[in-house]
Amino acid sequence: MLVVSSLSKEYSSGAGSVRVLDGVSFELHRGDSAAIMGPSGCGKSTLLHILGALDVPTSGTVTLDGQNPFALGEAAQALYRNDRIGFVFQDHCLLPQCSVLENILAPTLIAKSDSGVKDRAKFLIDRVGLASRANHKPGELSGGEKQRVAIARALIRNPILLLADEPTGNLDEATASSIANLLFELHNENRTILLTVTHSADLGARFPIGFRMHNGILARS
Ligand SMILES: Nc1ncnc2c1ncn2[C@@H]1O[C@H](COP(=O)(O)OP(=O)(O)OP(=O)(O)O)[C@@H](O)[C@H]1O
Ligand SMILES: [Mg+2]
């Protein structure tokens, strides 16, 4: 279970401080799939990065199955991220010099992985429809294909929380819809999915749980 309580984030600079998250609280259970919709700049990426322990909150708490990632030391926090969180970045962040297969396997190089990991990579490549592209480099793929690789990479360690930051943001509507279908197909009861959407209300509405974000405040829609 993901429990987010009174989360705030402020950035300070010479020009003053900016409050980007303003007391965000919500809970998601295992198996939930939810979308956060909101205009550009409202704080969606900031929230997702904190939930993925890629950034720290100014105040408030996050616990995932009772564990608070911000109470962990650096090494334990890196393991927490690698073990429990799958993160799909808006711009996919694939390693350009590595093949599709190597990109998908990259998270398994950090922690000790079981011997079944290659089979799982093959299974995921197949599921995202890129079996014939396993040895291609990201530069040889379309935007939608790259995003499919990013999804497979996020799922390789079978995380309990999948965070997808506008995985369809740069894609046309048909491709965006097929990426959403893929997320639903790869969904299982053990995993919680939280995705952000800026432009496509239709896409957001397909998720059983919807949140609206505005100026750093989150509400159920
Ligand atoms: N390092 C930073 N320092 C100061 N302000 C920042 C920093 N990072 C983000 N912000 C501000 O925080 C606000 C929220 O940014 P964020 O990236 O979370 O928005 P978003 O909802 O994801 O937007 P988009 O839909 O365009 O991706 C913006 O006003 C942004 O300028
Ligand atoms: Mg963003």
Question: What is the secondary structure topology, with strand pairs?
Answer:
Elements: E1 2-13, E2 16-28, E3 33-37, H1 44-51, E4 59-64, H2 74-84, E5 85-88, H3 100-105, H4 117-127, H5 143-155, E6 161-165, H6 173-185, E7 192-197, H7 201-205, E8 209-214, E9 217-220
Parallel strand pairs: 3-7, 3-8, 5-6, 6-7
Antiparallel strand pairs: 1-2, 1-4, 8-9
Helix pairs in contact: 4-5, 5-6
This protein binds adenosine-5'-triphosphate and magnesium ion.
Properties at a glance:
Rossmann fold; 30% helix; 221 residues; single chain; alpha/beta; binds adenosine-5'-triphosphate; 3-stranded antiparallel sheet; globular
Description:
The chain has one domain (2-220): Rossmann fold. It has 7 helices and 9 strands; from the N terminus they run E-E-E-H-E-H-E-H-H-H-E-H-E-H-E-E. It has helices at residues 44-51, 74-84, 100-105, 117-127, 143-155, 173-185, 201-205; strands spanning 2-13, 16-28, 33-37, 59-64, 85-88, 161-165, 192-197, 209-214, 217-220. The strands form 2 sheets. Strands 5-6-7-3-8-9 form a 6-stranded mixed β-sheet, with helices on both faces. A 3-stranded antiparallel β-sheet has the order 2-1-4, with helices on one face. A hairpin with a 2-residue loop joins strand 8 (209-214) and strand 9 (217-220). The longest helix is centred in the last third of the chain and has 13 residues, at 143-155. It starts with a strand and ends with a strand. 36% of the residues are buried. The model has no long low-confidence stretch (mean pLDDT 92). Adenosine-5'-triphosphate binds at residues 11, 18, 20, 38, 40-46, 198. Adenosine-5'-triphosphate is lined by residues 11, 18, 20, 38, 40-46, 198.
